[in-house]
UniProtKB/TrEMBL annotation:
The organism's place on the tree of life at top rank: Bacteria
Protein name: Dihydroneopterin triphosphate diphosphatase
Organism: Seminibacterium arietis
Listed EC numbers: 3.6.1.67
Single annotated GO MF: dihydroneopterin triphosphate pyrophosphohydrolase activity
Cofactor(s) the protein needs: Mg(2+)
Coiled coil: none
SUPFAM superfamilies: Nudix
NCBIfam families: PRK09438.1
Length: 150
């Protein structure tokens, strides 16, 4: 039996609490695609639990051990799945509901990449310009660019 990804996901915007620089990750399956931490919920998992798990899986950072402040934006957007990624979802699933989180970190750490091939710490403006994902761009603009970080 084929296991498909859930159409419920999280996006965790990781940024440096002093400079506002944003951590952007380069996908393994599309070298031109840079994004924040994202991932689908697993069965029985809440969005908050998924955000903690995905940050650890994608960057090696353990939010609970480090006692970091994961902020639930209490916002979700619905987006259309890019055609090249639809094979990961059940037939006829074309959209995902994505829950947003913010994670301020005290230093520009070097993530342990497993699911991505490269990373960059960029200004919020550069990060918003780099991502192909309108929803990733929107969370950066809403919470960092329109705030104090440019």
């Amino acid at each position: 039996m084929t296991k498909y990804k859930s159409p419920l996901s999280v996006l965790v915007l990781i940024y440096h609490q002093i400079s506002g620089k944003v951590l952007m990750l380069q996908r393994n399956d599309d070298q031109e695609f840079w994004q924040s931490v994202t991932g689908s919920l697993e069965e029985g998992e809440t969005p908050y639990q998924a955000a903690i798990r995905e940050v650890k899986e994608e960057t090696g950072l353990d939010i609970l051990v480090e006692n970091l402040p994961l902020f639930n934006c209490n916002e979700a957007v619905v987006f259309e799945i890019f055609p090249q990624f639809r094979y990961k979802y059940a037939p006829n699933v074309t959209t995902v509901t994505e829950h947003w989180f913010l994670l301020a970190v005290p230093n520009l750490y070097e993530p342990k990449l497993i699911e991505h091939q490269a990373y960059q710490w960029l200004s919020a403006k550069q990060a918003a310009e780099l991502t192909k994902s309108w929803n990733n761009k929107l969370i950066i603009e809403k919470y960092l660019i329109r705030d104090k970080f440019l």
